[in-house]
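Lab notes, practical 5.
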Amino acid sequence: MQNVPVVIVGGGLSGLYAAFLLEQKGIDYILIEARDRLGGRITVAKSSVGQNVSDQSGDHEKSNDGFDLGPSWFWPEYQSQLSSLIEALGLPRFAQFEEGDMMVERGPSELPIRTQGYQSSPPSMRLVGGMTALINALYARLDVKRILTGQTVRRLTKTGQHIKIDSEYGSEHINAGQIITYQAQHVLLALPPRLAVSNIVFEPTLPQDLAIEWQETDTWMAPHAKYVAIYESPFWRDASLSGAARSAIGPLTEIHDASTLENDGALFGFFGVPAQVRRSVSDTVLKEHCRAQLVRLFGAQASTPKAEYLKDWATDPLTAMPADASGNGQHAVAPPSKPKTGVWQDCLTGCGSEWSAQFPGYVAGAIDAATVAVQSLPADIFCQ
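Output from the prediction step:
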């Protein structure tokens, strides 16, 4: 049984940043991620057909080609901690394209109308290569021997001064189903609160009021789906259109320009169709409806994307629980990140983005929550 001061459960942005902070402080840890990749809700598609990646191989790390299937934007003017990290990691950024008019669909019996666009204030920014550039940059600075993927934490057991962590190899692993046990003094939960309390058995159980609060915290992005269409060029800009659109018809209710800084044109949209309805329709049919909508809004050139992607987060079991399908899609209020009483006090902390009091659910929230969690670790861990 491997014994370390800290085990991090979850390899999304918050987990990786917590690992980054622990390494800076010289604290040993293990990070356990259930997926076979890192990044969590941060993942990108590539312009080449069939490539949907967020790996840590390094091959695409230098590529400027990346289309976000999860979060895309950050706002440096009021997310200063995230912005400072991106700057320190040397990641190039660029402003979301918003120049020109936008298109609006008000009803099925009305033609789309062209109207004056608007620009965000403060401006929203994107990373060259997509948001996964941040994931790859952090991973490149970590001790890879401490990062374990393809393992799902099933049980946390408090035994005296330690926590026993039971983790199971996933179906893709040669040892699928095998349980591996680790031991730690503190566990950082770098995953959504609802996912943590639903999928992990805690022995003894968590305080009931805390478990209820975690269970009732909606997971950001969980009920959403995103469609991306990639083109040879952003042809809509030739007509002085920003690529933005709003629709009361759908299937996409909100559309934006997703083009890279120098290469491909792209449009992305959020579905307004509820998760239960999306589940009853094939991806092929959903994509057909999306293309038809883009043709209505931007013309015939929109009918032939060179690649297209659909990511339905509601069908991702490592993001969404059944309760998320009926969520309102809004950012939740951050619940307490740790037990205040009982055996789990001072040895268990939530550090996923939803636990950020300042930016719950946002990319900036992952950085904030991880920072607060690491800073609040018991003093004896720092003395080892």
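Observations recorded by the TA: Residues 49-62 have pLDDT under 50 and may be disordered. The chain is about 20% helix and 25% strand.
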